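Summary of Year 1 activities. Much of the first year was spent building the evaluation harness for sequence design. The harness presents a backbone, in tokenized form, and records the residue chosen at every position. We chose the following record to illustrate the format because it has been used consistently in internal testing since the harness was completed.
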């Protein structure tokens, strides 16, 4: 079992004392040392992967604010922080996070695959000197995943793709499409790993079995939100409208991870609201340390 890290964005929000519409990206402007601290704490908890704080470093997040020129330096800075943390730890992988264009959980706002692929390819090239694997996160429709896979393939590095499923029915993507509709796409592009991410752990458990026969790594990393609020639908929405669950401490989260392992997961970790203590619990169980 490989242990991923947990959710960078909400850890940064908690430490900063509040959310902005820039979410995890804000820390790269205000407190990059905080990003490094979070990476270090996840490694100390047993994580074997540092996920770069680049989920939000996308043109459609920066351009509307007149910050497009900051895309490349911010991306390089975030990648260097993850690499430095990995190197200080002495082992592990660096996964280059690339979030969904449009907005999280809103695949209808993403450009069509061919157009989106150009942006994803640009991001992959920026990550290429630093990362061991490209990680497409929170892909919420088949077409959104297609655009990501088309784009990041330009570097030749391994690719992981993480699909986000409906919180009330984990057999469906957030687009409403059946999760199994992504299987032909996976067979076409053959990413090294496929995950379910940033959904309720109950929904992850529902959907994971539909991917368990994939000929590659299969994994899961759920979020700790109570659900996705109806107001969280635009690119400038802030994460403080999303309520944190009170029943998903490290022990409770581990119970779900055990279910995922029994279904066939070979990589587990955490997404939003899953912190170092949760990762430590996964490490203690799966690694005996």
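For this record, the design step produced the sequence shown next.
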């Amino acid at each position: 079992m490989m242990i991923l890290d947990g959710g960078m964005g909400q850890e940064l929000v908690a430490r900063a004392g509040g959310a902005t519409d820039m979410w995890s990206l804000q820390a790269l402007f205000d407190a990059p040392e905080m990003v490094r601290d979070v990476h270090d704490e996840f490694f100390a908890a047993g994580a074997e992967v540092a996920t770069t704080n680049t989920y939000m470093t996308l043109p459609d997040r920066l351009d509307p604010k007149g910050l497009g020129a900051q895309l490349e330096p911010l991306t390089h800075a975030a990648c260097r922080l993850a690499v430095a943390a990995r190197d200080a730890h002495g082992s592990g992988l660096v996964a280059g996070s690339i979030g969904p264009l449009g907005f999280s959980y809103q695949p209808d706002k993403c450009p069509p695959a061919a157009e989106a692929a150009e942006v994803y390819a640009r991001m992959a090239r920026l990550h290429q000197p630093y990362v061991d694997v490209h990680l497409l996160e929170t892909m919420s429709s088949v077409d959104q995943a297609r655009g990501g896979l088309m784009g990041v393939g330009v570097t030749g590095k391994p690719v992981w793709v993480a699909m986000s499923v409906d919180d009330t029915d984990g057999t469906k993507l957030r687009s409403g499409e059946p999760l199994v509709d992504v299987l032909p796409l996976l067979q076409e592009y053959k990413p090294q790993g496929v995950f379910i991410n940033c959904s309720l752990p109950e929904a992850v458990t529902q959907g994971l079995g539909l991917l368990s026969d994939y000929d590659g790594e299969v994994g899961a990393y759920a979020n700790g939100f109570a659900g996705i609020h109806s107001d969280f639908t635009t690119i400038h929405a802030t994460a403080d409208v999303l309520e944190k669950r009170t029943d998903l401490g490290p022990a409770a989260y581990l119970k779900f991870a055990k279910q995922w392992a029994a279904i066939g997961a070979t990589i587990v970790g955490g997404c939003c609201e899953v912190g170092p203590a949760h990762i430590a619990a996964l490490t203690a169980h799966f690694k005996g340390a």
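Strands lie at 2-3, 49-51, 93-98, 133-139, 159-163, 193-197, 217-222, 267-270. Quantitative recovery figures across the full test set are reported in Table 2.
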